[in-house]
């Protein structure tokens, strides 16, 4: 499930959404959170979805994350039509295909980092030894192997978000869905977390990132702007193949492993 | 998710709030312990009643004067029981199922021995047949004989409590006591009968020949009661009918509904007593069951609080792929674990508590009540936990994640 970047375009798109509409309320009080969004995201792409509050970006993120269903429209995630799935199948899809990163980290309290990262694997029914091995590998990837036994309240905000990133990538999902991942972090931790996300994308992982900060959007290969539930601009900053712009731009200093 | 994993999550969840979990368990603990212990007390008291009635002798029938409280009698006048009634009952041709007859007079007197004074609650004047009918055995000395009765000798057989109070550890045999001004020679000491029905100590007794007691204290009037021993436990009913027939003859009564005496057997006494203790046990059990129910409601309450508190966590777990069933079983496991541990500790407390005497009753634990209370407590955990758990499981992830 982690194809090399150069083969990405040949396979089915990770996201294929057609005329997504989401309305809340009824009658005169009806609100169109999404008013017909078409979106295709190829494997290996790094998309930033931007918009002010009320633009519908959170609704879009919920639908893309299979946490909510569109009122009308069709959404194919990694080739699977999500519309026809029941709750049980949806939880399976979330477990296998999506890695969530939230603004407020959302770690399980009183549970150490290793157990946090093991959690999605536990729900997927992976055996304990294998689970441990994969969780440790994911924690190593975010540079927190030495903090495996620490609980959330013993970690800094940046470290907590890195644990959340490890948890999101441990199942090798089709895409990472990050909702304002740096919204609660200081500039140093922001750099750290974004560096890890860049690196993950560089190694072929599809990333969809929701943000309202331009600095964060600069890391993406493609920037989509939402206004009133409609896509108003869609600009590409870097090709789908190849490294994300932040890594390419700093090529001189950061050729190998830009983040440490 | 295997069951072991679910259990591990449940333990983690419970240990996160130790005080709260502990208090919730306490509710179940008290409920279970109360059910087991109170039923044991009820059972213990009915056991005690049964034992004391056995000690009175199972073949014994008691004839007393007057219409009973239970038996609605239309007797206009009451003839007292006399020695002649007793003699008539002793006639084998009229009452073949009667083995022994002991007329009784009862009084209460103060006994003196070398400066020690003791008020004996029951001084009984009777015939030697009394000893067998009432299941009284001597451990020291001997019973008094028919000769002693005929000669109205001043002899007495005393109960164990009376003996200890007057003589301490010394043997009372052959000693002279002064009972209500009359000197009596102790010829025998009775075996201890035990705590009895609770109202009167059956071992605090002095038994003397009937004419001796009549002479000294009660006078030659009516008898207090007549103790009759049936030939066997199976013939008590026949013996009871024979007594009624004979006494109707001696009292000149034609109408069997208008008798002026009452025949009660130990079995009727037993059934009244045991039905009383049964009611008592049921009441105690009901009170205990209510406390168990309250404990169960405590579980629901605490689990609802827990679910509300952990809404975000539930939302997150669902977002990263926990199916509904896993969330449901996690919270059910928590509530069942609460009740399981609470019930286990409750059983332990009850079993320890049953070693102590409670309000004079030695509790006798009913094994079925232990399993029953335990099973009910666990079922309560499942039942009362199912509402909060299903609420947790049906939370929608986006709303749960947004929850503050």
UniProtKB/TrEMBL annotation, chain A:
Any one GO CC term of the record: membrane protein complex
Keywords from the named record: ATP-binding, Nucleotide-binding, Transport
Keyword RNA-binding: no
Record-annotated ABC transporter domain positions: 15-253
Segments of skewed composition (Low complexity): 247-260
Highest taxon listed in the record's lineage: Bacteria
Keyword NADP applies: no
Any one Gene Ontology molecular-function term assigned to this protein's record: ATP binding
InterPro entries listed in its UniProt record: AAA+_ATPase, ABC_transporter-like_ATP-bd, ABC_transporter-like_CS, ABC_transpr_LolD-like, MacB-like_ATP-bd, P-loop_NTPase
Ranges where the record places region Disordered: 237-260
Record PANTHER family: ABC TRANSPORTER ABCH.1 (PTHR24220:SF86), IMPORT ATP-BINDING PROTEIN (PTHR24220)
Annotated protein name in UniProt: ABC transporter ATP-binding protein
Native source species: Streptacidiphilus pinicola
UniProtKB/TrEMBL annotation, chain B:
GO molecular function, one term: transmembrane transporter activity
Cellular localization per UniProt: Cell membrane
Classification via InterPro entries: ABC3_permease_C, MacB_PCD, Macrolide_Exporter_MacB
Segments traversing the membrane: 21-42, 280-307, 337-358, 364-387
Annotated keywords: Cell membrane, Membrane, Transmembrane, Transmembrane helix
Membrane topology of the entry: Multi-pass membrane protein
Any one GO CC term of the record: plasma membrane
Pfam families found in the cross-reference section: FtsX, MacB_PCD
Stretches assigned to the MacB-like periplasmic core domain: 21-245
Domain annotation ABC3 transporter permease C-terminal: ranges: 286-395
UniProt-listed PANTHER family: ABC TRANSPORTER PERMEASE YTRF, MEMBRANE COMPONENT OF TRANSPORTER-RELATED
Family: Belongs to the ABC-4 integral membrane protein family.
Protein's name in the database: Macrolide ABC transporter permease
Organism: Streptacidiphilus pinicola
């Amino acid at each position: 499930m982690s194809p090399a970047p150069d083969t990405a375009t040949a396979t089915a798109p990770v996201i294929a959404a057609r005329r997504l509409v989401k309305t809340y309320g009824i009658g005169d009080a009806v609100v169109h959170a999404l008013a017909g969004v078409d979106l295709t995201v190829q494997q290996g792409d790094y998309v930033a979805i931007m918009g002010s509050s009320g633009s519908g970006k959170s609704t879009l993120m919920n639908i893309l994350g299979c946490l909510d269903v569109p009122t009308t429209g069709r959404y194919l995630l990694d080739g699977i039509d999500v519309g026809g799935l029941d709750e049980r199948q949806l939880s399976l899809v979330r477990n296998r295909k999506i890695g969530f990163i939230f603004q407020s980290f959302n770690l399980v309290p009183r549970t150490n980092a290793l157990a946090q990262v093991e959690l999605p694997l536990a729900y997927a029914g992976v055996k304990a030894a294998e689970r441990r091995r994969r969780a440790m590998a994911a924690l190593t990837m975010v540079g927190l192997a030495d903090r495996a036994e620490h609980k959330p309240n013993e970690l800094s905000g940046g470290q907590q978000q890195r644990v959340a990133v490890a948890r999101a990538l441990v199942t090798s999902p089709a895409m990472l869905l990050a909702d304002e991942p740096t919204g609660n972090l200081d500039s140093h931790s922001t750099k750290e977390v974004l560096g890890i996300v860049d690196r993950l994308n560089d190694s072929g992982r599809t990333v969809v990132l929701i943000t309202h900060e331009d600095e964060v959007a600069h890391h993406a290969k493609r920037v989509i702007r939402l206004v009133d539930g409609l896509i108003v601009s869609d600009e590409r900053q870097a090709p789908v193949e190849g490294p994300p712009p932040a890594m390419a731009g700093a090529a001189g200093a950061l050729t190998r492993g830009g983040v440490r | 998710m295997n069951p072991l994993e679910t259990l591990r999550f449940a333990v983690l969840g419970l240990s996160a709030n130790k005080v709260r979990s502990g208090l919730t368990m306490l509710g179940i603990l008290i409920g279970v312990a109360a059910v087991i212990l109170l039923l044991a007390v009820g059972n213990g008291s009915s056991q005690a009643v049964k034992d004391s009635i056995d000690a009175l002798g199972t073949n014994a029938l008691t004839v007393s004067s007057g219409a009973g409280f239970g038996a609605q009698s239309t007797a206009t006048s009451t003839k007292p029981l006399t020695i002649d009634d007793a003699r008539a009952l002793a006639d084998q041709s009229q009452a073949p199922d009667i083995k022994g007859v002991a007329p009784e007079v009862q009084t209460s007197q103060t006994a003196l021995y070398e400066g020690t004074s003791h008020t004996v609650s029951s001084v009984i004047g009777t015939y030697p047949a009394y000893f067998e009918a009432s299941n009284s055995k001597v451990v020291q000395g001997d019973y008094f004989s028919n000769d002693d009765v005929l000669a109205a000798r001043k002899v007495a057989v005393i109960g164990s409590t009376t003996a200890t109070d007057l003589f301490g550890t010394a043997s009372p045999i052959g000693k002279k006591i002064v009972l209500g001004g009359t000197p009596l020679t102790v010829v025998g000491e009775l075996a201890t009968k035990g705590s009895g029905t609770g109202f009167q100590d059956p071992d605090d007794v002095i038994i003397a020949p009937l004419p001796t007691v009549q002479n000294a204290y009660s006078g030659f009037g009516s008898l207090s009661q007549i103790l009759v021993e049936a030939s066997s436990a199976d013939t008590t009913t026949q013996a009871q009918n024979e007594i009624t027939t004979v006494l109707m003859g001696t009292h000149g009564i034609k109408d069997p509904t208008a008798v002026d005496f009452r025949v009660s057997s130990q079995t009727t006494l037993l059934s009244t007593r045991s039905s009383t203790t049964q009611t008592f046990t049921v009441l105690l059990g009901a009170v205990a069951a209510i406390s168990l129910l309250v404990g169960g409601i405590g579980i629901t309450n605490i689990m609802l609080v827990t679910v509300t508190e952990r809404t975000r966590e539930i939302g997150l777990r669902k977002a990263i792929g926990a199916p509904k069933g896993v969330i449901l079983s996690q919270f059910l496991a928590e509530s069942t674990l609460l009740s399981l541990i609470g019930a286990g500790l409750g059983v332990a407390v009850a079993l320890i508590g049953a070693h102590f005497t409670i309000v004079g009753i030695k509790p006798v634990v009913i094994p079925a009540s232990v399993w029953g209370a335990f099973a009910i407590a666990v079922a309560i955990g499942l039942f009362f936990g199912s509402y909060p758990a299903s609420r947790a499981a049906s939370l929608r992830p986006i709303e749960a994640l947004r929850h503050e």
